[in-house]
Design goal:
globular; 129 residues; 4-stranded mixed sheet; alpha+beta
Length: 129
Amino acid sequence: MLPTYARMRRSIDFRRTVRLGVRAGRRTLVVHAFRTSPTPLTDDHTVAADPTRRGPLVGFVVSKAVGSAVCRNRVRRRLRHLTRPHLSELSAGTTVVVRALPPAASAGADLSTDLDAAWTSAIAKLGRR
């Protein structure tokens, strides 16, 4: 399960990540990544109160094209579980959106392989930016 503090909830965060970030796709999913500028410190050396800049955020998009509600939720749960080990690779201010494609519904171990490859590719592209 993905920790609560790392879950992306605001639509503006999803929109900014998908539109302005880098993209890496595979057969079953697409990973979008975006990094904001580092948060400036205030006078008392604490991080500003903007919740999007406290740490990395990860969000998931699983459309109706993937399948029924049961199938979509199963795919979302699997993606959350597979994403958790990758959180340590992200720096503060990084947002990632994982968008499942219709083949994700029937993917077995391919989903894990595709997520690892797309995640690595997106983070590498983000580093070159």
